[in-house]
Design a protein that fits this description.
- The complex is a heterodimer.
- By secondary structure, chain A is mostly beta strands.
- Chain A is built from no helices and eleven strands.
- In chain A, the strands form two sheets. In chain A, strands 2, 4, 5, 9, 10 and 11 form a six-stranded mixed β-sheet that branches. A five-stranded antiparallel β-sheet of chain A has the order 1-3-8-7-6, with no helix packed on it.
- In chain A, a hairpin with a 3-residue loop joins strand 6 and strand 7.
- Chain A starts with a strand and ends with a strand.
- Chain B is globular and about 45 Å long.
- The chains are: A mainly beta, B mainly beta.
- Chains A and B meet through strand 4, strand 5, strand 9 and strand 10 of A and strand 5 and strand 10 of B.
Chain lengths: 116, 116
């Protein structure tokens, strides 16, 4: 079945370091891959997405890399700050029949802790 | 602009009771989704409304769950009768069709349901 999984459940880094969060997926037919950040007491918040025909996309302090050969997705956060501490979820989206009707399939989440 | 809101934020009920969760999507968003996260597991899709119609309800666990979106605005998710395994956090998300295959889904803060 379709699944999106994570390699590591927790990640601890020092403030200012770069963070890399990894994710493996199984459904090669996904149209988009998305990273979400969830802080305590809040719902998942969109960070960045990447279309399946791309291999890299950059945002503000974040970069998502997609390796379709090994079905691997990563989120890189530059100069990690204490405010980046949260649970990070990767998700995949597949539109039904090329439409926008589809659902997100989430991974379990990685807890990122940034130490001052 | 107000985000997605959910009510209540927490609900504690006994097994066999009924609970109704409410979601108010972002104004103008035709797409409304329900997801849930059971303790320690990934966020899983429950169903998708387009306006008042159920587009996809493949994730609904069983017939104890009933979702409605009368008038195509807010939605309710009723669990009757509740079982212990229904405990978890229920998220609602909404999106606006912008002509892309994937349109960003905005999540609410979730309702934490505890069934004793």
């Amino acid at each position: 079945g379709e699944s999106v999984g994570l390699h590591l459940p927790t990640l601890s880094v020092q403030e200012g370091d770069n963070s890399i969060i990894n994710c493996a997926y199984s459904n090669s037919a996904s149209d988009y891959f998305i990273w979400y950040k969830q802080e305590s007491g809040k719902g998942p918040q969109f960070i960045i997405d990447i279309r399946s025909n791309m291999d890299k996309r950059q945002g503000q302090r974040v970069t998502v890399l997609l390796n379709k050969t090994v079905k691997h997705l990563s989120l890189q956060i530059a100069a990690t700050q204490p405010g980046d501490s949260a649970v990070y979820f990767c998700a995949s989206f597949r539109g039904a029949g090329g439409t926008s009707y589809g659902k997100l399939t989430f991974g379990q989440g990685t807890i990122l802790t940034v130490h001052p | 602009e107000a985000g997605v809101t959910q009510f209540p934020s927490h609900s504690v009920i006994e097994k066999g009771q009924t609970v109704t969760l409410r979601c108010d999507p972002i104004s103008g968003h035709d797409n409304l989704y329900w997801y849930r996260r059971v303790m320690g597991k990934e966020i899983k899709f429950l169903l998708h409304f387009v306006k008042e119609s159920k587009q996809d309800e493949s994730g609904m666990p069983n017939n104890r769950f009933l979702a409605e979106r009368t008038g195509g605005t807010y939605s309710t998710l009723k669990v009757q009768p509740a079982e212990l395994e229904d405990s978890g956090v229920y998220f609602c998300a909404s999106s606006q069709d912008r002509g892309r295959i994937y349109n960003e889904q905005f999540f609410g803060p979730g309702t934490r349901l505890t069934v004793l």
